[in-house]
Protein 1
Amino acid sequence: MIIYFSGTGNSGYVAHKIQSVTNDQLISLQRVFRSGQNKGKTYHSEQPFVFVCPTYAWRIPRIVENFILNNNFTGDMRVYFLLTCGSEVGNAVHYVKKLCEKKGFDFMGFEAFIMPENYAALFDCPTKQEAKDILLRAKPEIENIATLINEQRSLKEHKARTKFLSHINGFFYAICVRTKPFTVTSRCISCGKCAERCPLQTIKMQGEPKRPKWGKQCTHCMACICGCPTGAIEYGKHTEEKPRYFLGDQYLIGENK
Ligand SMILES: Cc1cc2nc3c(=O)[nH]c(=O)nc-3n(C[C@H](O)[C@H](O)[C@H](O)COP(=O)(O)O)c2cc1C
């Protein structure tokens, strides 16, 4: 069973690539979170579990970690973790291994793929051409890992390079993950796509004409700002006139096959 979370499509792309080789069941956490059924369920798989998600502050996203902690997994307890990142995953593997111990998973491997940066709120996203080139470079690596997973082989040990970075994770959530700086400009066409994509349903379309309003709960997945078809959403001053990165809706929700 491949369980994935994706804000802007990178991790969804990886999950779909793995699925195209293993033919395994695909579960979108975006869909699970939006349905509100994110706790107390049992996920049973006859094949190893594969979790695919972005890197948030050098670890797996907190909402993905909580999902794993708060649900039950049965069947083939071997597990792979595949992370997408803009450049560096720090010591994410260490925390993943601890999580596996807690949940009784049999750790089969961890891999990180460098994909286009999507953290528009704090960093610079690539241009369309740069993103295309980065994806092209990542493709053979993803295909190689898909083959290994299909053969149920252990992955090569992942060597963490910049371990100290992952310590900043708690600080990052406390300080950086806020919704207040999100604003919407007159380019908004009231399509509501930002609200439709928000995994935590924190965005509500309000007023006349309808405009997005952010609640407090947010994981900074960037689906709203990066996916906006008219580039109408800003995050403070940082995002003005800057490119956004969004790969496609089919990689966020996909089919729960
Ligand atoms: C909140 C947030 C934190 C991020 N932290 C990191 C990080 O620590 N290291 C890194 O290389 N990329 C980081 N990124 C970039 C994403 O991990 C990367 O672009 C990822 O492929 C996005 O996946 P998605 O399209 O499936 O959402 C971060 C992005 C966001 C939105």
Protein 2
Amino acid sequence: MNDDGIAQFNKVNLGSESTSSNTISEVTDKKRLNKQSQKPSNQLKNGLLGWYAICSSNNIKNERPYFFTMYNEPLVIYKDKELNLRCVKDLCPHRGASFIGGEVIDGELVCPYHGARYSSTGECTNLSRITCNHIVDDNYDNYASKIHLYQYICKEIGDYIYIYYTGKAKTNLNDFNVEDNINNRLLNNYGFDIGAYKYEEVVVDFKCDWARIIENHLDILHLFWVHGDTIPDNDVNRDVITSFNQEITREENQIESKYKYKDSSSGEFIRIKFLPPGRIVIYKGEPNEARYIQVLDHIPLSKNQARVIVRHYRKFMKNKFLTDLLLFRQLQHRVFYKVFSEDYMILRTQTYNNQMGFIEKDNVKLLGEDKMVQYYWDWFKSSETKDDPWELHPTDFNTNTVHEDISMLYPPANPKLEKDNTKSIYLNLAIRILIPIGLVLIIL
Ligand code: FES
Ligand SMILES: [Fe+2]
């Protein structure tokens, strides 16, 4: 993008809730930020605790526990005897071992340390395995009743696994007070007919502050500059940059920003919805006719570690044979891994700057086109004060890093899958070229 391009983009109209000036001077900006920080809160109902999409259904296989962390708390999901999903704290209530290295046998979670097994409701089903009759004391019944898994509510909807995360796992799921309806998470509620699309899914891990990743995904401006050469869309590159009219609305369940072409006959360029605490939906065009839609779910694994599930819904290339033949899935993965690698260094250094307090010290200036980002931070800061999720299971430099060490599975933090994907592209290309050559040689 040339300087003209940047200037043009800066001429974004701030829309219905905004001032009429094209760029905001530092003085005005400071006043506005002060004024907003004095507002009691914002209109969004959900805070940082609540429903999170954690993974895809196909991550949960029978007999295979799925391990992850939420705000530093180690958790495990598995299917019980009745094939219901269970999300339990990764802590055996006998002597506190993790279930890593354990198994799911006949729908019961089995601890690797002494073999305790746990029923669907979380009770130990083989106390005799971990007790010796001759040392059972008077208090035995009391003791046995305390051997119980700690759980969170876990649901499967539309190929996503969700948990209702409060930071306080309970022995009885009925003790949770669920304030948000899970049906709000159905993708069909977001204005598009999901049946008309096919999707590819990519999962990515970052060693950085999860809140900064959300900020990145709400930011249109960087798409042109950082990803302009990577995103295969003629509308998004460093040279083709236009200015838009931006309209932002804040409602009970979402913040939404529409970027419309100045020429009204061209319609919408992009629409972004932020659905707290962790979901973003990006539409290329208006929702009911968008050419493609991305659904991004952000998971705060631990301090400085986050996972994002990206689903890329498209109306084109729906034929399975053709997509397999053209290696569409692998090529899409390649683009996504590249896009997220491009963000990675920025996110890590931005995290550092934030942690050092540089970003808080008025060293940064949010501009008019950053209004979506500003609204997001308004929500984040008020939710952080209210819910304080990182204080529920705080860690410090003395904390053993075992869960951190095993949690980074995906690119860009762990490049293995990216390399495997590239190898698979080259291998399949070679096969596709060699087979016809071989056939011709045989015929000759
Ligand atoms: S710690 Fe799990 S069975 Fe003993
Ligand atoms: Fe990005």
